[in-house]
Every structure is written in C-alpha cells, then in structure tokens.
Amino acid sequence: MTDFLDATRTSYDTVAADYADILRTALADSTFDRAMLAAFAELVGDGPVADIGCGPGRVTAHLHGLGLDAFGVDLSPGMVEVARRDHPDLRFEVGSMLDLDLPDASLAGLLAWYSVIHVPTDLLPGAFAEFHRVLAPGGYALLAFQVGDEVVHVTQGYGHDVDLEAYRRSPDAVGAQLAEAGLAAHSTLVRQPEGKEKTPQAYLLVRKQS
Ligand SMILES: C[S@@+](CC[C@H](N)C(=O)[O-])C[C@H]1O[C@@H](n2cnc3c(N)ncnc32)[C@H](O)[C@@H]1O
Fold it and tell me: What are the GO MF terms of this UniProt record (predicted)?
C-alpha cells in the first residue's frame, strides 16, 4: 500500500502550488460542478463536512461559501500547506482516506472530489468503509470521478514531471461498491466532457442509512 501512497503524495507535493494557480477559478467556469455542489450543500445542511482529498482547498472554500461547516483533509502535505495559505480561515489536515483520523459518525457530509481516482480498485472498499464509519446516520457523500475503464499512468501534470496512477471507473461499479459499504444511491449523474476533459465525468451522491 505504501508505494502508491508515496507516489501520489510526492506527485501532488510537486504540483501543489501550480495546481492551485491553474484551477483557482475553474469552478466559476463549470456550471454543472457548481450545481452538484449546491445540491449537496442544500441536502447536508448543518453539521461538519469533510472534503477528503481537498487538494488546495478550492472546493472546501466553495462549500464554506455555500454555508457549510467545511474542512479539508489531503494526503499531500504540500497541498495542505497551499490550502492553509490560500484559505487561512479554514481548517486543513494531512491524512489518508484509507485511515481517516476522524471520530465515528462525526460528519453530516463528505466530499471526495476527484480524489478516489488515485486509490487502487481493490482498496476502494476500505476507503468506502471509512466514509461510512465517519458519516453520521443520514449523512451524505458526494463523489466525482472520470468515467472509463482504464488505469492511466500519469507522467506530466501542471508543468511538472509526476509519477502516479489515475483510475477511470464505471459509475455502476463504484455505486455497487458504495452500496456494499452501506452507502445507498441517491443520484448518479454523468455529463459529457467539457474543455480539456477526455472522458465523461461522473457524480455519485450516496447516503448512509439512518
Ligand atoms: C485531482 S486532485 C483533486 C483535489 C481537489 N479535490 C480539487 O478538486 O481541487 C486529487 C487529490 O487527492 C489527494 N489524494 C489522493 N489520494 C488520497 C488519499 N488516499 N487520501 C487523501 N487524499 C488523497 C491528492 O493528494 C490530491 O490533492
């Protein structure tokens, strides 16, 4: 397990500052992403919300702006440093979605926005078990990821050499794994690629049973 986590951490440490600069205004250009996040925010309402794999905190800050009590967790200390620099009023911690340092049933909502893409498929059930553990009964999780069935070995990103894997997935397969973890489907939405995107994008909203 250590090898892929080390590779992912090192790659995102390398790109953190440029990733933040390049994506700083991306949400403003994505009507659909904002719509999904708005629906999630409205459903979650009050209570703590963790942005797991928050990167530079751009989406954490957006959720905060929608009125949520949002904080971020990321594997990459470099990303967390940038997130704290850019959003000093918000809380960001280093951590892995495979072993979250959060109490049981402590969250009203959990966002995993293009972060499960770096978790090998055989380890996804472990991540989803963690999502289930930390969500309160009735809590919502929203996941976004690229649709497909390939594992992409990424060697270049945001102007840097990197070395990590990104997993494209079927929404049905991910939905089935979430359901097995006790996170029941609320909505599954797929949109066609926009701009530089190469594949359709999936958004899965699930809910922990009450
Ligand atoms: C494509 S970026 C997305 C960042 C952010 N969600 C956004 O949309 O800007 C993927 C992020 O997931 C983080 N990540 C990857 N594997 C992780 C893990 N096991 N636990 C926590 N974060 C992870 C990476 O460090 C990186 O910051």
Answer: methyltransferase activity
